[in-house]
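Hi P.,

Sorry for the delay on this. The queue was packed all week, but I finally got your sequence through. Input first:
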Amino acid sequence: MELTLLGTGAPEGLPRPDCPCAVCATALGEEARAATALLVDGSLLLDLTPGIAFAAARAGRNLGQVRQVLLSHPHDGPAMEIPAGLPQPARVPDGRELTLISGQRVRAVATDAPGTGYEVTGHDGERLLYLPPGAAPAGTSGPEGMTAPYDTVLVDVVGRPDALARLREAGAVTPGTDVLAVHLGHGVPAGRETARRLTATGARAVPDGTRLTVGPPPAPGVRGLADGHGPGPVRPPLPRRTLVLGGARSGKSLEAERRLAAWPEVLYVATGGTRDGDREWAARVLLHRERRPASWRTAETCDLLPLLAQDGPPLLLDCLSLWLTDAMDRVDAWDDAAWAGGGERELRARCEELADAVRTTRRTLVAVSNEVGSGIVPATAAGRRYRDELGRLNAAVAAECEHVLLVVAGQPLPLKG
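Then the structure:
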């Protein structure tokens, strides 16, 4: 089954008309996106958008063979002009199946937002799923009646990462599924940051006009049609281990949570524990809990080695700096005599054990830590000791991670990977 993405943007397109924001101002060239519309095997058009005939021409296609036009979401604004020769657009009731003259089977999938998703099955059984903007499959899991993983899924990954999480939970998306981000608007970060963020979710974005084949991934060493101009598809590798660094209120925890938002089950490991009577700390903890998906579990512990050794869902470890505080408490590192009498050696051994556990873990891991070495030099020997040991710990863990990010003023800067 051949798929041509005539557009990959939000319904308003990117850039949005008359929008002065930074993303719209820099959405030039391949970063500019028309409203999402898909052409399947040249005969099925999913979503009718302004300028669709010109978009098809730019992609080297024509719409003369289109026999069915299906709409996935309400189209606001003035009535849209239907190019000559195209059939009247229609919406299919949820659950209804169509068999097209061209041989594809189409099933309408219920969603939790206004609109309809479409499951398309090709002549050889290849399957794709297309969801409307801002929508996830209705219910708590994947599409009703789903019997096998999809080969390709097109979804609003940036706006609804939980939609991808639901599909993964249902088994509709597996490591072999090509996940394409569509309906991209000015809510996405500008430039390379979009690709970096999507890679963390196991998805990718492609330019308007991209052509690709829907089906099982090619054999090793064999690359299939990706864009009409050369080989592909190239599916981004998922990072196993990521370290997110940043200062206070830099946005590092939010960035770490965002990287796992498309996964159905995550174990959030909070190393800070509880502090009786500290209302400000309790408010911080509550804010973090309310921000996390309801499907995530929380463990309040500094005993990290068993968690890293076990198999299980992804770990979000927040944070290494509080783990170090606990480790220093355990060896009485704040006391100069205890530090000189073996505390330093014991702490270094604990940190080395943690770095070794990160190296050998088979779980997906996103760890958060503070970057405190760029500020004022602490006035006390204990403060300087903590600063130095945190710098050493961050360096040791970073060496074992495929991806390392530094978050400054909410902006993630890739340091590694």
